[in-house]
Amino acid sequence: MMMFAETEDLGAKETVEAAKTWSQNMWDRLTDPGMWETILFSGLRIIVIFLLTRLFVKIIFKLIDRSLERRENNRLSVNPRRFVTVGELLKNVVSIASNFIMLMLVLGEIGVKLGPLLAGAGVLGLAIGFGAQSLVKDVITGFFVILEDQFAVGDVIQTGTFKGTVQMIGLRSTRLVSWTGEVHIIPNGSITTVTNYSLNNALAVVDLPFASAKKLEEAIDLLREAMIQLQKSSGTINEVPHVLGIQSLSSSEFVVRITADCPPGTKAEVEREIQTYAKQALEEEEQRQLQQKSGSEG
Predict the structure, then answer these.
(1) Pick the CATH number of 149-196 from 3.30.980.10, 2.30.30.60, 3.40.190.10, 2.40.100.10
(2) Considering the entire predicted model, what is its pTM?
(3) % the chain with pLDDT above 70
(4) C-alpha to C-alpha distances, 191 to 82, 130, 140, 143, 181, nearest whole angstrom
């Protein structure tokens, strides 16, 4: 029993001595002027790093805005929303890169070894890159779609089997709305060939068949008069559609072609108007002929 008591007393003394040593060491550290000087200067450097990073980001943001404003003024035909998209993309890249560099500098100031940290980040980034190749491809393609002005929101485009109006352009995907209302969400990486119907004026083409018994000159004169009426009443086309003449000929009929320059995205509408006015003109001509025939018989 005496031995156990002595052992317990010895253990208690060692614990007390260890606690005293720890408290003394902590007190020495807390009262060490050199430590507080190091903390003070490190804190000041961290504050300076933060302020310089914020200042750098603001300066770059202003440079981006001014550069895009000059480009927008020089290219009046470009959708202004395209410049907004490019500007926001560039600002995000600058902000992420600046904050990453600032974080590395701050970690270095508080004593974190950056070598192993950067090596681990590199391995992690490599693993993510291999696992997300399609995502990286989509983002890169989306960036160049926006930067190269391939198409903009509101344009009518076709890529592959999908055709519609561009509703949204993102870094990962593009959203199209077809004329029947379907929404197509297309990964940017799969956009290889694009046909943009909204960059230049379109050409509306209509072929009208006539029976061989119909006189060619009468048919052409009738269509030209109808096209003049169409141009006067239509708010879509600025010029009278051109009646080109015979496009094809067979033993039973001949086909007359009509063309018209029209604004982007209005090709189908103009073609319907041409057919409507041509049909109305033909019906009115038939009605006049019937009236003349009935009058002569009477």
Answers:
(1) 2.30.30.60
(2) 0.52
(3) 76
(4) 18, 21, 12, 12, 21
